[in-house]
Specification:
mainly alpha, two-stranded antiparallel sheet, elongated, 59% helix
Length: 152
């Protein structure tokens, strides 16, 4: 009875370890259509760095929006907006900080995928955020929001 229990336990343990090994298998190739395109690189280290760069792009978008938000608040108080400094200042600007992060990620082995210019993402992301300002800070149609309320 003990021998049968042990052999069953060993078989179960082997089956579990095999399924765990399959669950951790790295799969490369084209991404499913829900991603809108793209490809998983053959090297998992490259994938990790690509994901880090993508995360930095998302952080940049939030930082750029903060620059414009603070700038709009400043403008509403008849102050200098400070947007250009917030975006471009060599020591504090969000774009130079983004460039430094991307350069750092790219300098670590195995680096970033060669099929995309991650350094070029900064101005593109900033431009996309800026493009939303016209609809974010929109003028009330025919004074409809004069009372300070809006219907969503």
């Amino acid at each position: 009875m003990l021998k049968r229990f042990l052999s069953t336990t060993v078989a179960l343990a082997l089956a579990l370890s095999a399924s765990a090994a399959l669950a951790g298998t790295y799969v490369t190739g084209p991404l499913p259509s829900e991603f809108g395109g793209g490809f998983i690189p053959p090297n998992p280290g490259v994938l990790k760095n690509v994901q880090k760069a993508s995360k930095e792009g998302a952080k940049l978008a939030a930082s750029v929006e903060k620059c414009y938000s603070k700038g709009a608040a400043n403008f509403s108080k008849n102050k200098a907006t400070g947007v250009s400094t917030c975006l471009n200042d060599p020591s504090k600007g969000v774009l130079p900080k983004f460039q430094a992060k991307i350069t750092g990620i790219g300098s670590k082995a195995p680096g970033l995928s060669a099929c995309h210019n991650y350094n070029g993402d900064g101005p593109v992301i900033a431009g996309l955020v800026k493009a939303f300002n016209a609809s974010t800070y929109c003028q009330s149609p025919s004074g409809a929001f004069v009372d300070g309320t809006a219907s969503f």
